[in-house]
Amino acid sequence: MGHSQIAPPPITRKWREVVLLITFGAGAEEVAAAASAAMEGALGAAAHDPAVRHAFWLLTQVPTAAKSDDFPGELRRLGVYAGAAPTLPEICGGVIEAVDRRVQSTKGRTDLGELATLAAVESLSSVAGQEMPGLFGPTHVAGDTHAALRKLATPAIFSVLARDFFARLTRRYLDYYLSRELPNHIGMRSRFPTLADHHQFDQALESHCRQTALIVRQFSADWFSKHTYEGGIDPENAGGFVHYAFEKIRRELVRRRDAEP
After folding, report:
1. For residues 90-105, average pLDDT
2. CA–CA dist 76, 176 (Å, integer)
3. Coil, helix or strand at residue 111
4. Alpha-carbon span 51 to 103, nearest angstrom
5. What is the SS3 assignment for 110?
């Protein structure tokens, strides 16, 4: 209902430059920056996508809800339904459903929104999981989940969560476009002679997106602290943060490309 796909790569001079960079062996940094420039309009629109904004707002609210003795009740207030003793997988499932209900009410379902929702729950699971006990990965015990998520409500740990979310979303967003072009360059006498070469490029792009998203971590801690203690974070100022973060990431992609020797 109301679903719309992200527009395909535009056949423009900027996108043709991306294709040429891939063809002639440019590194992940150059390709990522050029792709960002080619889809600059779409990237700007992404900051206004209701699912992107709501997913990020929930990332700010779930840790704050964990500070309450009535954690399940606070989750329900957010529209996250996860049972009386919620575990991390249950909460992640509840976040997906909450975002889905939000976009259904606005008929604003998009591919980008789905990418953002997946990035949000992956980040929540990954960062909270690092705060949970267990020799072989995080446990699924409700008490451990509550304690781990409460730690995410501190500015320092929230900044890790914000960086992880925007790194994952940037990577997924670039891949949404680039995955349509990169397979055209696999094969003998092509940019990627083997699948291993293609995989190596993907890994370099992943690393580049994570390094680029450090720019978000640098200001998200102060933002989280300021708004938490000045009345709380609401959907409006969370949306403003998303817009600012996308702009910072776009500029950082270009800066890192230009700084390459």
Report:
1. 91
2. 33
3. helix
4. 6
5. strand
Three-class DSSP labels, 29-66: HHHHHHHHHHCHHHHHHHCCCHHHHHHHHHHHHHHHHC
Using CA atoms, how far residue 190 sits from 23, 88, 197, 232, in Å, is 7, 44, 11, 53
Indicate the Cα dihedral angle 62, 6, 104, 140, nearest 10°. -30
Asked whether the whole model's pTM tops 0.70, one would answer yes
Query: Which pair of structure tokens corresponds to residue 55?
Result: 């997913």
For the record, the structure tokens of 249 come out as 């990431």
The span from the CA of 71 to the CA of 250, in Å, is 37
- pLDDT tens for residues 190-242? 889 999 998 999 898 888 888 888 899 889 999 999 998 888 899 899 999 99
d(CA 34, CA 17): 7
Phi, psi of 252 (to 5 degrees): -70, -35
Position 67, amino acid: K
* CA distances to 130, 136, 207, 208 from 204, in Å: 24, 27, 5, 6
- Rounded CA separation 148/128 (Å): 6
Structure tokens at 78: 């957010």
Greater model confidence, 259 or 120: 120
Sign of CA dihedral 223, 125, 7, 251: positive
